[in-house]
Design goal:
With about 550 residues, the protein is an alpha/beta fold. It has 21 helices and 18 strands. The protein has a ten-stranded mixed β-sheet, with helices on both faces. A hairpin with a 5-residue loop joins β7 (about 180-185) and β8 (about 190-195). α8 packs antiparallel against α11 (about 275-290), α12 (about 310-315) packs antiparallel against α13 (about 320-345) and α15 crosses α17 (about 420-435).
């Protein structure tokens, strides 16, 4: 090959490599980090980084962006974009078709009931007498980056998962974690764990639970951090697109938390206000001190999930004053935590990645008010429509066992009694349900098993389809079309408003720069594995984001 041909080939080849374009490279100090901190911000859209940029301080998001490596075009590559699925995919480096977590809840076609992703009655609550700790990660079929680090170090080093939500603490920490902790609300107001990990809470957790921090946070009303008149990036505070707390007449600031807590399940209200993020930071710092993380010769891993952003987004929506205030406050939480890491672990001794488990759709009714196509579907009406199809073509209304997460599960026994096949019934349903208003695509399980989709939203659907656990017909609604109450927001689709999230690497071993090339969320785990010089998670299908790492 001539030099000119080789040069042209190289130019074309490297232009197709994703996640490789970066600017302003500057090496951080290299060497094995003593602590890796994975931060997942629940329901964080990428545009929250840019939309509120002028109001962020220099020590939070801007510090990570200035001194770390940011992927500006990072996306989830599967459907459904839910919390449990997102946390699992980040840490396993693969999609639901491999790791087996296909939702937060899903219909189990073997047990004939709806199940929750981390429920496990083989274990009991550690920390109180409730059942909030009957949990484990056993439904996750593959290893995580946290598992691989433990294996690589012959089970040395500590791994701890922390999150207000149980699933957000348990799944990232993996099967080999030393501990996972989550917040038990209601009348409890305590951080708890499961006997999967331990027989009793460590003293530092008992001391934290006794400190009264949750009560201190709930003594204060939720007021805006800055003058609400300056919150020009969000819509009017008093609008018809937001839910209220129980006991409120209007969804406006200030929110009188001390008087609202009794009507909103007591301690559980802390999850739905920025203070939930604050107490998560408090607990993470206590864990680092209490467990001496980052102080040994082996690498420790702390997986943190900030969940209040999700609760606020669901209740008030993407464009609310509440979501803006929550992110301005979270920026300060991030700054506080980074300063703590500098002091406790050492500025060059830790590596951080920050991402989200999914993003969110703007409230469809708000979009409709500004003439953008959006809609709501009724789950009951959808079920009735599917039953009408089976009645018309098969003279039967007992072929449908369950519809959930935009998946249809067929009753195989009843179909066989009619001397028919599941494939035959699924094909007829798929061909006809496309006529239902609001449904954009319908695909049978057989099609997903026998056809490979390389691009587009059907590729996302295929990546989220698990042959063993998923339904017989899978549906994709129109953009900005949801099954949800008509106030507040949600997520779950394969559209960019749900898939486009931040990925930022920072600290030991990380280059300074950014990339505008397309990347996928499953690339995080292989990248961290390469940084730590350990094996990928055993189901990983992501790739190394090479330019995020030092040469």
């Amino acid at each position: 090959m001539s030099y000119i041909k080789y040069a042209l080939f190289s130019l074309v080849f490297f232009s197709f490599l994703s996640c490789t374009t970066n600017t302003n490279k500057k090496n951080q100090k290299s060497g094995k980090p003593k602590l890796v901190v994975g931060i997942i911000v629940d329901q964080m859209r990428y545009d929250y980084l840019t939309r509120f940029e002028s109001k962020y301080g220099q020590g939070g998001f801007k510090r990570l962006l200035k001194n770390g490596f940011s992927l500006e075009n990072a996306h989830f590559n599967y459907i459904p974009t839910y919390t449990a699925v997102g946390h699992t995919s980040v840490y396993t480096g693969t999609t639901p078709n491999n790791h087996g977590i296909i939702g937060n809840n899903w219909y189990d076609k073997f047990e004939k009931k709806s199940i929750y992703c981390v429920d496990d009655n083989n274990y009991k609550t550690i920390g109180n007498d409730g059942k909030g700790g009957n949990k484990s990660p056993y439904r996750m079929l593959t290893t995580t980056i946290t598992d691989q680090l433990k294996l690589a170090q012959n089970m040395r080093g500590k791994t701890i998962g922390i999150g207000i939500k149980d699933r957000s603490a348990i799944l990232p920490a993996g099967h080999t974690a030393n501990a996972a902790y989550w917040f038990d609300g209601g009348s409890k107001g305590e951080w708890i764990s499961s006997s999967f990990y331990m027989n009793a809470l460590p003293k530092w957790v008992v001391d934290f639970n006794s400190s009264g921090k949750a009560d201190e946070y709930l003594k204060q009303p939720w007021e805006t951090l800055y003058d609400i008149k300056t919150y020009t990036e969000s819509i009017a505070d008093d609008n018809n697109f937001e839910n209220t707390f129980k006991g409120e007449d209007r969804p406006i600031f200030p929110h009188d938390i001390p008087n609202l807590r009794s009507k909103n399940n007591n301690y559980s209200i802390i999850k739905a206000i920025p203070a939930g993020n604050s107490i998560t930071t408090d607990f993470a710092e206590a864990a680092i001190i209490g467990e001496n993380l980052g102080q040994g010769s082996d690498t420790d891993f702390l997986a943190i999930s900030y969940s209040s952003t999700d609760y606020v987004g669901h209740q008030f929506g993407v464009d609310s004053k509440e979501i803006e205030d929550t992110y301005l406050r979270f920026d300060k939480e991030l700054e506080r935590f980074l300063v703590f890491l500098d002091q406790q672990v050492g500025q060059n001794n830790y590596t951080v990645f920050l991402t989200a488990d999914h993003a969110a759709v703007q409230v469809p009714n708000y979009l409709k008010s500004v003439k953008i196509p959006a809609n709501y579907l009724s789950g009951m009406k959808l079920l009735a429509y599917v039953n009408d199809i089976t009645k018309k073509y098969f003279n039967s209304e007992d072929f449908i066992e369950n519809i959930s997460n935009f998946q249809i599960f067929l009753n195989k026994e009843n179909i066989e009694k009619k001397k028919m096949t599941v494939k035959e019934v699924a094909n007829v349903i798929s061909e006809n349900i496309i006529n239902y208003k609001g449904i954009y695509k319908s695909v049978t399980a057989t099609t997903l098993q026998n056809t490979e989709f390389d691009t587009g939203i059907l590729r996302h659907l295929q990546n989220g389809y698990n042959q063993k656990f998923s339904g017989d017909v899978l549906l994709i609604p129109n953009p900005s079309t949801i099954i949800y109450p008509k106030k507040g927001s949600t997520h779950g689709s394969g559209y960019s408003y749900d898939t486009h999230v931040p990925i930022i690497f920072y600290g030991n071993g990380i280059q300074q720069g950014n990339s505008k090339q397309y990347c996928e969320i499953i690339d995080i785990a292989p990248t961290i594995a390469n940084l730590l010089k350990i094996e990928f998670p055993n189901g990983a299908t992501g790739k190394i984001i090479s330019n995020a790492l030092e040469n």
